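Subject: Protein entry, chain in single-letter code together with its fold tokens

Area: Proteins and the way their chains fold up in space.

Attached in line: The record itself begins immediately under this heading.
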Amino acid sequence: MKRSVVGIFVVVAFTLAGISFAGAAPDKIVIGHPACLSGKFAKAGEQAVGGIKACVEWVNTTYGGVEIGGKKVPLDYKYYDCESKKESVTSLIGRLISVDKVNVVFAPYSSGLTLRGAPVAESHQMLYMDHGGASNEIFQQGFRYIVQTIGPATRYHEGTLDMIHKIAPNAKKVALAYEDDEFSKMVMVGAKDHAKKLGFEVVFERTYPKGVTDLTPLLSALKASKPDFILGGGHFEDGQLFNRQMADLDIDVNALSLIAAATLPAFYKALTTMAEGVMGPSHWEYGVKYSAEEAKAVKLPWIGPSQDEFMELFKKATKEGMLPDYHAAEAGAQVLAYVLGVQKANSIDSTKVRKALGDLQFMSFYGGWKVDDTGMQVGHSMVDVQWQDGKRVIVWPEEAQTGKVCYPMPTFEEKAKGVKAVPK
């Protein structure tokens, strides 16, 4: 009896102090991640790991750690290579939760892999943060523990269509050709709906299989439809193939925008001048005007690092010569969102942090952040970039521009002769 009374007294004392055993500050907070470091999504996965490492370093050094239970706690980052395979994602998430005892799981890159891992995290009531799965379908399954940082797929090509509608009133016909996967098909649905809303005629609409090695039949049919511009793509490998075989078939259009692939530095490195004038929607590019001052102007809380700080930290965390793209930025910004969620909840309990994230709105170097009731990102806006003279230039929206758009882009024959995309 005496022992029970003492136990009750201790619990009451800690409760009155605003602390409980369950809520006591841990020695560290561990982020788990089945990362795509090999296989189909290796390029984007490598970027994501670099972005996470960069922001973990900033939190632990400059920010001083995560404030919880009256103390500052460092972040730890535990990741394994899932090889871009669905079966590896499920087993690794189980291992991270059950063996490594992580406090949050960051989803792998791509909608398919993110969706495959979600039920595993859900079964463990583990917070599951999505930095690279944009398909709206992920948030139509009733999952309670998933939260998105990347924006929804249906909005990817809206800005591109808005831009062409404004700068090229004579452009009437658009061709849509996307990879046959969860993410890309959602982008196509959104693009088709928005194109029709703006009065464009969709003259070609088709998907191509994952892992495709020859797009000649599809592109030949597309060419016959005589579009003014083309929207399409899926991921890095098929995006390269799409651009290269368009050149082989002399398919010249006024604009070409490819999702996921065209924004990567590796895209231009692989295609060189054939990539001139090619565009792509991006969640972030160096030069966007997100800062503490901008956050103050729109009355949003700000959390660092600045763009320049992120750039330097990313370089430090990755191999020499590697520069961050939006895959790195969105993954890094997810670290910052998690930190704010933990601090708001004053807990690492997944249920409490998930609720806190649902109430959170802020700005970082990546831009705005806010999710709806399903966990889908609704607070972040995209930009459109174009390759001009070997550099990525933000061409839309106008308030974010670092340069004017080159429209129409050079023909493939011109590009073969060294002509660069230069705005008129």
